[in-house]
Amino acid sequence: MTFLSKLKVSAKVIATCSLFAATYLTAANDAVTPSFVAHHIDTAIVIDGELDKQWDKATWHNLDQPILGGMPDKSDFNGRFKLLWDKDALYLVAEFEDDVLIDKIADPLEFYWDDDTLEVFLDEDASGGEHQFNYNAFAYHVALDNQAVDIGEKDSSGKTPFLTLNDHIKSRWMRHQNGKVIWEMAISVYDDSFKPNIGKQPVTLH
């Protein structure tokens, strides 16, 4: 079992630049001041790129913290996101305006960082620390074809594998008539004992 108060989540949209928004999801009585509250829901979100009524329970938060460089003009990129959760998944919806989305390479494991993605960093126990070549935390690069990629552990030869982790995230996006893109995800949460190809189950949130 995992306590949602220990779940560290951040979301990054890579469009014309990289943007970063981070938060701790904390219980109301937690000693740490919460950045915001992610509400519990009883019925799973339908992942279809549409904003259904369940999302009304959550509050929008801006994607407005650039990792590199300055913020783009809002006419070039403008984004925000919400979070909800149930025992099986963390639900994320991002809404953004970007007139051009690029997916140049069909192979999800080849130069995926050059394409537009919705990137989600997830640290199940908020332990911090290095995560690039281990499963202490995950950095899911979710492509426009809805495939999720992360970097795995180095093998005995020192080679670093790129992994598709599509069973971790169900993802759908849609560009609507107003030009805005709605991108929904249901994210199964794994702890740092995860190993690929051994049938490891996600944790239960409460």
Note down, in words, how this protein is organized.
By secondary structure, the chain is mainly β. It has a single domain, classed as Immunoglobulin-like (Sandwich), CATH 2.60.40. A seven-stranded antiparallel β-sheet has the order 5-2-1-8-9-10-11, with no helix packed on it. The chain starts with 7 loop residues before the first strand and ends in a 19-residue tail after the last strand. The N terminus is likely disordered.
Please give a quick description of this structure:
The chain is mainly β and 206 residues long. It has one domain (4-187): Immunoglobulin-like, CATH 2.60.40.
pLDDT < 50 stretches = 1-8, 10-34
Summed up, the domain count is 1
Separation of the first and last Cα atoms: 7 Å
Strand order of the largest sheet: 5-2-1-8-9-10-11
Can you give the helix content as a percent range?
under 10%
Please state the average pLDDT score: 78
At the first level of CATH, what is the class? Mainly Beta
What characteristic shape results from the CA principal axes?
globular
Main β-sheet description: 7 strands, antiparallel
Order of helices and strands: EEEEEEEEEEEEE
Can you count the beta strands?
A: 13
| Residue share in β-strands | 25-35%
| Radius of gyration computed on alpha carbons | 17 Å
Q: Helical segment tally?
A: 0
The chain-level structural class is mainly beta
Any idea what the CATH architecture is?
Sandwich
Could you please say which CATH topology applies here? Immunoglobulin-like
